[in-house]
Amino acid sequence: MGARRKRQRADAARPVRRVSTVLPGSADDPGAPLRGVDELVEFFRTAEKPRAQFRVGTEHEKFGFLRADHRPLPYHGPQGIEALLRAIADDDEERRVGAWTPVEDGGHVIALYRADGSITLEPGGQLELSGAPLSTIHETCAEVGRHLCLLRRLCLPRGIGFIGMGFHPTARWDEMPTVPKARYAVMERYMPTVGARGVDMMKRTATVQANFDWASEDDMVRSFAVALRAAPLVAALFANSPFVEGRPSGVLSERQRVWADTDPRRAGFPAVVLEPGFGYRRWVECVLDVPMYFVRRDGVHHDVAGASFRTFLREGLLVGGTRVQATQRDFADHLTTVFFEVRLKRVLEVRAADCGPWSRICALPALHKGLLYDPTARDQAAELLDFLDADALVRLRADVLVRGYRAESARGPILPLCERLLDIAAGGLARLCCRDAAGRDETRFLRPLVESVALGQTFAERLLALLRDKWQGDLSRIWEEVEFFHEDETAELVSR
Known about the structure:
Layout: H1 2-13, H2 37-45, E1 56-66, H3 81-90, H4 92-97, E2 101-105, E3 108-114, E4 117-121, E5 127-130, H5 137-155, E6 160-163, H6 182-190, H7 198-204, E7 207-212, H8 217-237, E8 243-244, E9 247-248, H9 254-259, E10 267-268, H10 280-288, E11 294-297, E12 300-303, H11 309-315, E13 317-319, E14 322-324, H12 328-335, E15 339-340, E16 342-344, E17 348-354, H13 358-372, H14 375-385, H15 390-403, E18 408-409, E19 412-413, H16 415-432, H17 447-455, H18 459-470, H19 478-482, H20 487-495
Parallel strand pairs: 10-15
Antiparallel strand pairs: 1-5, 1-6, 1-7, 2-3, 3-4, 4-5, 7-17, 8-9, 11-12, 13-14, 16-17, 18-19
Helix pairs in contact: 2-10, 5-13, 8-13, 8-14, 8-15, 13-16, 14-16, 16-17
């Protein structure tokens, strides 16, 4: 009983940071009303940075499971997600690095924040690390490694594991936990009205994403176009979700198939990015026509799903019986509900990859850093991919999610394109010449992709081959194959 009271006092004393999911009735300042589109254009223009200040931020999501029977990790209970978040916040060793501040919604912990990043939850309980903006991929991989080693230390004694895949390999969507987060309730109500797979996207997919800076409007336009045209190739390079509810699904990236049938007005490949004259203003105009999900006022997420942000900007919206005007914070919230394969916020975010083991988490930011931060590499990538328009990207993704490297573009199979794209990225990283203490540059983080292309076998096809040849059709073997907590893997991470 004494230990229990001690824990209760610690919980009461722990500060709660109320950010995008704040408790009802808490202080919640949305900011001043916007005066027009020009302010939204400036929202992006003021994000420009000198190249010397360019950074890379990396995010990845992963599925938790109970090691005893491989069921999805529940939200509640002693082995649940909330208990794990509290354990991370209370961990003495982690506190020496930097204390995590819990964030609550309705009295439940749904995130942890500190100065160098956040640990948040996706709607199906997927645990997401959003890392700090860092100068090198060496730092990024060390950050991922520290996070996974922390989870290994806390999770193994609790009978918990985590896997990196793009789609949950065994669970039905109704077997996934429900995270008590207000904005997710709005999304879950609205998404089935605009696409068949919206709830699957929320609850059964996981990705690795990376965020990039730009120096000027022209710099942003060039990087956006290259990243968007590269997205189907990235989907092939990272395809890692060939199973649904315990069986092969018939595709190599079920996650990409889900996104193709989620919400056409906010997902896919925005044609405007590849049109002449694209820039901040054209992007703002595009985003204004993406339907809204919610408006935050007085600590409450008000359901306005389907409303027009353009109308919100011009006339305001009735929210909780009161007409409110759009603010810059509302616009920033709205951008988080735009799910294109590449999207522009205050950073340029690439979103086409299935999640995978730690090495591929490091590979995604390395690939795009090489392509986007070295001007020569970006020009070469633009020349390689300039034949792809938005319609071609849609067709190519549809082929990639089924056939991977055997998919066909207007210039033939994509395997040579993937090989050339990796060569360009490696050249870019070599010229950027960011070395670690051992003198190694960042090209080494491309190794798993280079090996995959050399074999002509996606990661998903490797898993299918294991199921057929080594596991003799027993998919339960996948948990030991794709979990994050292999001792040799975490030992290598610690040494980085």
